[in-house]
Amino acid sequence: MHRIAPIVTAVITAVLLSTTLASPSAAVSSSILLTCQKRFESKVRAFTRLAANKLHSCADRVVRCKLGSEIDMDDPTACLAAAGEKCSVLPTTIGDALAKAKTKITDKCTGIPIADFQSFVGGLGFSNLGAGCNTAMTVNDLIDCVIGVTGPTGTFGAKCAVEREAFIRDPRAVDSLSDVSINLDPANNFPCLGP
């Protein structure tokens, strides 16, 4: 009977210890975490909606010119020049929207430790992301991973997903956005565009 007491004590201690390790106390309140989560989600959605609309709008302008040339034998020069003028601001517009979204997320999420973002129990659960964001060491790294970054290294996150989806929805998007007449340099500005 006396041998059971140390075993029971050891089991209870192990259960309590594992519970403590598995569900760490959040360093901030649940209302602060929820406010951050809502801001995070809303800004990612707003950014992706804007980026998708801008990419498709530009691609549509170019497709209109090219189909007019291919089917109706119209000279595409003036049409492509006008499309290029409208599309030339695309990298800046998307880059500015990305920066604004990150700032708005950071405004509501400042002071929350990275552990509270990563923990599934008692946190926001970002450790479960399949995008590799579970290895982020800082909140800013996590935000960059989830929403994406500009430039040729931006091959991850929501920005990249929008670029891939543009190609899925419009098979001519890569050709349209790569047209030399509009000078967008997709390899550097939209590295995920395409299959």
Describe this structure in words.
This protein is elongated. The protein has nine helices and no strands. It is mainly α and 195 residues long. It starts with a helix and ends in a 6-residue tail after the last helix. Residues 1-24 have low confidence and may be disordered. It has one domain (27-188).
> What count of helical segments does DSSP give?
9
User: What's the structural domain tally?
Assistant: 1
The unreliable regions are 1-24
Mean pLDDT, rounded to whole units? 83
Task: State the helical fraction.
Answer: 55-70%
Shape type: elongated
Q: Strand count, sense and closure of the main sheet?
A: none
Q: How many DSSP-defined strands?
A: 0
Give the helices and strands, then pairings:
Elements: H1 4-22, H2 30-72, H3 77-87, H4 90-109, H5 114-118, H6 139-147, H7 157-169, H8 173-178, H9 186-189
Question: Which features does this protein show?
Answer:
195 residues, mainly alpha, disordered N terminus
In short:
The protein has 195 residues and is an all-alpha fold. The chain has nine helices and no strands. The chain has one domain.
